[in-house]
Amino acid sequence: MLKKIIILAVFTFTCLAGCDKNDSQSNTGIAGRSSLTGKWIRVNDGFENMVIEITSDVNGNLNADLIYVPEYALNYGFEYGDKKIVSITKTGSNEFSAQSLCKSFDGYNYLTVNYSAVKIIQSNDKLVIKDMVWQNRSIGNIQHWERIADGDSKMAFYYYGKSKIAADISKYNDKNKYIAKALKAGTDSAELANIIAWDLAIDGNADCTKALDLAKKACSKTNYQNHIYIDTLAAVFARLGYFENAIDIQQKACKLYIDNFQSLWVGSSSAEKIKYCKEYDDDYIAYLNRLNLYKSNRPYTEY
Length: 303
Hints:
- The protein is an alpha+beta fold.
- It has ten helices and eight strands.
- An eight-stranded antiparallel beta barrel has the order 1-2-3-4-5-6-7-8.
């Protein structure tokens, strides 16, 4: 009996020691064991729905790539597949230090790329990433992220991002596979429904039949007040051969664009805005060019 108790005690101690070892490694970057590894979606400050994927290499080094980039972030120069966070090092029980990608334009519109020091704080399936420069001030760059897993509808953002990365390296079969997965995961977001519809519309080789429902969903969710989404709907109708619909809808997109144009002085008339945009605003000029295509019974495609 005593022998059995000793054996059981040794076995229990060995198991506990092994568990402790694994737990201590779980946050240090050992491949496949880090609690940070996985997919995370941002939930605050205008960059909502940005997705990063934290991975561990064979040496246990942790890095995070940008998988999905919202339009607002694209305007700041971020790209799908950017190395968003590097050099992740454990500094406490649930804290890590790292370098986070920053991009900015100088006065001459040259993009400056650098990395800033950040602190990552993990609490279960949530991350808070604080810019080290700001973390002790009352206002600063504090990012909130939540883990996303298979089965979550937010995985649609991840799959769409993977489709963009695949397209960038000309892996079009993979692109189509990820688009299908994004559609299956769900497109409740107007933002996501719009960009998938747009991608299908501008791809001359893509099946555009599903794009119509997506574009209508995006417009409906924003009460047909978002000129970007209406521009997409027009492009979809044109790809499907409904040019009269496309013309009518594109004209509405152009009008909404002018109605919402804020770059001129207060009180400027629609005529003044139109004159200015026709000469200087690239987005509005692109809207007009697409309208002219539809009037000549041609869709707008980019590849």
